[in-house]
Amino acid sequence: MKKHFSILLIAGLICALGCKQSSQNVDEALVEQKDVLVEKFRPNFHFTPKANWMNDPNGLVYYKGYYHLFYQYYPDSTVWGPMHWGHAKSKDLLHWEHRPVALYPDSLGYIFSGSAVIDKNNTAGFGKDAMVAIFTYHDPVKEKEGKINYQTQGIAYSNDEGETWTKYEHNPVIKNPGIKDFRDPKVFWNEEKSKWQLVLVAKDHVQIYESPNIKDWSKISEFRFNDNPPLGVWECPDLFKLPVEGSNEQKWVLIISHGGESAPNGGSGTRYFVGDYDGTTFTTNQKESQWIDYGTDNYAGVTFNNTPDNKRIFIGWMSNWNYATVTPTEKWRSAMTLPRELSVYKQNNQYFLKSKPIDGFDAMTQSVAKNEISGDFPHKISFENLQHSEISFDAEIKDSLQIVFSNNEGEKYILAYNKANGLFTTDRTHSGQVDFSENYLKTAFQTMNIGTKDALSIKIVLDASSAEIFLNNGEFVMTNQIFPNENYTHFEILPNTDLKIENFNLKEIENAIE
Ligand code: FRU
Hints:
- By secondary structure, this protein is an all-beta fold.
- It has 2 domains: 10-34 and 50-357, Tachylectin-2, Chain A (5 Propeller), CATH 2.115.10.20; 361-509, Exo-inulinase, domain 1 (Jelly Rolls).
- Helix content is 2%, strand content 48%.
- It contains 2 helices and 37 strands.
- The chain has helices at 140-144, 438-442; strands at 8-11, 30-33, 36-39, 52-63, 66-74, 84-90, 96-103, 110-119, 130-138, 151-158, 166-167, 182-190, 195-202, 205-211, 218-223, 234-243, 250-258, 269-277, 282-283, 290-291, 299-303, 313-317, 332-333, 340-347, 350-357, 365-371, 379-382, 389-397, 400-406, 412-418, 423-427, 445-449, 455-463, 466-471, 476-481, 490-494, 499-509.
- Strand 13 and strand 14 (205-211) form a beta hairpin.
- The longest helix is centred in the first third of the chain and has 5 residues, at 140-144.
- The chain is globular and about 65 Å long.
- The protein binds beta-D-fructofuranose.
- Beta-D-fructofuranose (FRU) binds at residues 55-56, 72, 83, 112-113, 136, 183-184, 235-236, 300.
């Protein structure tokens, strides 16, 4: 059901003259929505489990009209514990249907992250079109005993579209080679070689394996990168091919997440390499790490297998290991990012990855205001609730730009761009609840070097507890979790000097909660 925004656009005035702000009383922990009791921070259109703990997206695969999202899930608590695979499915990647837990821990261990494919030619003998999952077994007993070989890879299959699963009787299919962190297999069908291949992480590098049947695997290569200093433990790799925008060239992209304090703004984060893959070895000329998202809250993201239109759709876990277990939600913990379409572009002889909300996201949004903002600044717009909205505009910038979201409690979430130093920044220091974690506060001010730009196209997607910022159609991205005590009701654009705003559009986003 679409809610109605009341809009007031005031140029040059701080909302003084009876501007209508019917902000919701979000002090109550729960509000009634679509017959479900919903906590105030529960997103309207980002995926969350109905209850309890979630981390990485797993087994992303399309089959018979549905995108399947499996995820690291602990059904007994709102903090991390013995891992299961939760399951949801969706026709459009935005409206999700919760399904029963898919995979439970067994005698070989917890079910850690992994991926899934559709075995169209029945190479594994589990049945034509079986959905086959490959995941990491994490054996807590061996771990406790101080052994290092406690992570192995196992498989399971489903002949009913992911509803029920059978574990393979000869698991594990890849034994531990004596490496402590050995996990997160991402499997794909290599068309050119007519073989299954997978990438997994082994502490500080990637290993590539191949198989004729998803059961028997041999290692074919490794990928390392000379990081100085080394980044935190390597996790959740992905490897796929993409065309370079505006050319006939094809490139391969390797995605890797890193724990510890690796990411540009602290804590865990996800980087990528663009390069070449000859079917055995991945190589890149890239000299430095590039990050898929410069905000603190996009981790362990991977892409869908078997998409109908060959699009590369990415979903990340919208949190950070630095504070994930203590965010101020009650019945559930953690959401996924918006599904994002990835593409590769070339600039100054270098390749980069772009990520933007999938095209279908537009269908969930409805313009509530289209304003040619011009004239005196500051511009201030007030709404009853900005926290299910998308704001986009193009800015011609003379020297700087500031964007402020605020509420009647004086809480503020601030975005800024300073042309002189090329830094785009976000500041959640006074954005709402912040003191649930020192680590969250430590990373409250975040920067991203976008260089000197005369013009920027900006898209900001706000949900109950998140902000996703896409610059220049996804060339630069920042994702932040925010926890305002009251919904933001004001939006301001403040320049220091001349600033031209065009194509301003505010859209309300439909509530997609199941
Ligand atoms: C990444 C990760 C994976 C692991 C899973 C365990 O967030 O640490 O490497 O498989 O989470 O839940």
